[in-house]
Amino acid sequence: MIRSARLAALVLLVSLGLGACSSSGGGDGSPGGTVTVFAAASLKESFTELGDRFEEEHPGTGVTFNFNGSDSLAAGIVGGAPTDVFAAASPSTMARVTDARLTADAPVTFARNRLAIATAPGNPHGIGSLKDLAAPGLKVVLCDETVPCGAAARKALAAAGADVTPASYEQDVKSALTKVRLDEADAAVVYRTDVRAAGDTVDGVDFPEAAQAVNDYPIARLEKAPNAPAADAFIAFVMSPEGRKVLGKAGFLAP
Questions:
Q1: Over the stretch 143-184, which tens digit does the pLDDT of each residue have?
Q2: Distances (CA, A) of 235 to 104, 177, 219, 224
Q3: Are 122 and 203 in contact (CB under 8 A)?
Q4: CA nearest neighbour of 238 among 22, 41, 57
Q5: Helix or strand or coil: residue 109?
């Protein structure tokens, strides 16, 4: 019995030692391992670039992303999905995670975003305002109200006094934009950053009510992050001058 206990203790010590080695960083100070980031769909282009740059500056550290609607991501985290970092498109969706006491620290705002109307190239229907989206026969798509882009769109539409009945509600902003790109919708209310990322595949129409529906983007490390050192390093990188430059290039506003 004593010998078996000693053997079990030795196996435990070895496994702990191996675990420490696998999670430790490289000799250059890199945190090492993989950091898993759950990020709002509207962050796909900018965060993908930030992830590539982060990996270049931290050899031996990888970044894995899950891009989706913030509401779906928050539900996954609350449901126990292993995550290191959560970057949401609104404080209200981040609150679902903080209310469950799942973040290590208070979230910090790293960017802001405004809405725009996406139309087919050339804006064939001559859309110039939110009220134009109420025109008979016009196919308009919105994000579902449970996700930040949908909540912001509803707020802007109310401010404009525009009564719009959408052809469909989409679960994230990329899905709404895709409807326009595939000619399955005439217009969509999305973020200006998504219009910019789409290049010449869509046209963008700004509207003044967007100023009343600006979304703050918070980021936080999860309390049970599998790779806390890499999570902290990634968040610091997003908040760094280089990170802000990438976000600004994508069209995000400074916090």
A1: 999 999 999 999 999 999 999 999 999 999 999 999 999 999
A2: 12, 28, 7, 16
A3: yes
A4: 57
A5: strand
Under a CB-based contact definition with an 8 Å cutoff, are residues 172 and 200 in contact?
no
Write phi, then psi, for 163 (nearest 5 degrees).
-100, 95
Q: Is the dihedral of CA 108, 237, 194, 181 positive or negative?
A: negative
Give the neighbor-by-neighbor strand order of the sheet with 187-191.
Answer: 168-170, 140-143, 187-191, 115-119, 203-205
Query: What are the distances in angstroms from CA 5 to CA 2, 18, 19?
Result: 5, 20, 21
Cβ(220)–Cβ(114) below 8 Å: no
Q: What mean pLDDT do residues 214-225 have?
A: 97
Strands 33-40 and 85-87, sheet pairing: parallel
pLDDT band at 19 (very low <50, low <70, confident <90, very high): very low
Closest Cα to residue 172, out of 134, 210, 143? 143
First-to-final CA distance of the chain: 62
Q: Is the dihedral of CA 135, 136, 139, 140 positive or negative?
A: positive
The pair phi, psi for residue 234, each rounded to 5°, is: -65, -45
CA distances from 16 to 4, 11, 191, 209, 254 (A): 18, 9, 46, 56, 43
Overall average pLDDT of the 127-140 stretch: 96
